[in-house]
Each structure stands twice: as structure tokens, then as C-alpha cells.
Amino acid sequence: MRRIWGVILAAMGLAVLLSACGKTQEPTQATETKPAQATDSSAEEDAFYITEIDDELFARIDGKSFKEDCTLPREDLRYLHVLHKDLNGNTHEGEMIVSKHIAEDVLAILKELYQNDYPIEKIRLVDEYDADDERSMEDNNSSSFNFRFISHTNRVSKHGLGLAVDINTLYNPYTKVVDGERIVEPVTGEPYLDRDADFNYKIDHDDLCFKLFTEHGFEWGGDWTDRKDYQHFEMPDDKIAEWYPNNQ
Questions:
Q1: 74 in Cβ contact with 107 (< 8 Å)
Q2: 122: which strand partners?
Q3: What whole-number distance in Å separates Cα of residue 186 and Cα of residue 173?
């Protein structure tokens, strides 16, 4: 799928180049540019889609994010294909796996972020990092599903249910003080604990990412009092209880 959309995006760039080369010819410049713009818009629209987890995709996640002890049915997950832009405005393909319950919302959020040139450095399946959260976060990767239980319980975490999304993880770390010692995840995110500082990718209450996720019913980890998880957006507990009453 990534290869196909890479070809489409390259073709879009070629269309723009050919249009520029033909500006001195009839018909007028305004008439010439409209088809190229329409094609680009159509291709971008088609690049945002949701599918079920087919066998080919499942082979990529089996034994990684979809671990051997995974209790979540494969049918409860959805694959998102999106576009996103980096700090320089370059367009990239993105892949994310989320719960079927939030797939439409997350797709709409990522699409609106893209349309507003909101920078997200990477949106890759955590499986590309062998489902290692620390490696994924250090690479500033944005992701969702990665099956695991909450420590010392038999409850599945919200990431394990695909009901939490992390955005621009390096610059929006998780932190908590345990027995007098500050924990930071990823460890390389410690310079970004100063939320009064001005730096790229920072999520705060004025940020479009925060506004869109909360408008769609997500809670932000940056608002927690016992810990801070600035990268993290999750569905509230009452929705979890509604969808997964046995996960209590």
C-alpha cells in the first residue's frame, strides 16, 4: 500500500511539473491549473482510508504488537492509511492501527491535521520498531495499538485495546515521580519536560492536535495530576466499560 501511494504522490508532482512547462501554451494558465489541482485533491482524498486487518497486514503485526497472549479479537482492530506533513511541509504516508470504535474519529482528526499543515514527523506501525515503545518514542513516532496488560493486573491497557493514540512522542514525553525518582519515557524526551519552553511539536492547550482530539471525546494525558503524558490521548473509562465491560 505504501508503495502504491508513493507512486501516486510522485505522479502528482510530475503533473504539477508538466503543467508548469505548458504555461505559455493555450488554453489559459487558469484553465490549465484546475485539472492538476483537482487530481491532487482527489488523490489526497483517496489516501485517507480505513480497512480491516487482512491476512497480509496481520502477518506484519503477529507476534509483535499483536502478541501471543493478545486477548483482543483481531476483528476489533482497524488499519488507517493517512498522509501527514513534516516541519518543512513535505507530505509523507502514514499507517496506524486503532480500535474499530475510534477509527473514524482518528481518521478525521489526522485528515484535518494534514489539511492544516500540522507537523507530525512519523506515523508508522509500532511493529516497525519490533513493538518496542521506547524505540518508537525516541524516533518521534506517532502510533496507537500495542497489546499489553496494565502492570500487575489482568486488565488490558488502552493502547492494548487500540483506544489510545500518541502523537509526536519524543517532544511530548511521559513523566512520573516514583519513590522520589523521576521517570521519563522516552528517556531522550527529558529536555522537553519544560512545557513553558518554545519548541517544535509541542502539544498544549492552544495546540490544534489537543483541540481536535478533545473535541472527538478523547482525554489528554497532559491534564493528569499524578503524572503527565503529553503525547497521549485516550478514550475515557466510561467508554471502555461500555465497549469492554469485562476489562474492569
A1: no
A2: 141
A3: 6
The whole model's pTM is what?
0.84
Dihedral of alpha carbons 69, 152, 240, 222, sign: negative
Q: Whose grid coordinates read 482492530?
A: 77
* Rounded-to-integer distance, Cα 92 and Cα 110, Å: 12
Task: Read off the pLDDT of residues 27-51 as tens digits, 9 standing for 90 and up.
Answer: 333 333 333 343 467 788 899 999 9
Distance (Å, whole) CA 218 – CA 165: 9
Evaluate if residue 222 carries a pLDDT over 70. yes
| Rounded CA separation 187/184 (Å) | 5
pLDDT at 15 over 50: no
Taking alpha carbons only, the member of 129, 155, 158, 139 closest to residue 65 is 129
Prior bond to 35 cis, omega within 30? Answer: no
DSSP collapsed to 3 states, 122-152: EECCHHHHCCCHHHHHHCCEEECCCCCECCC
By mean pLDDT, which of 27-31, 180-184, 186-190 is the weakest? 27-31
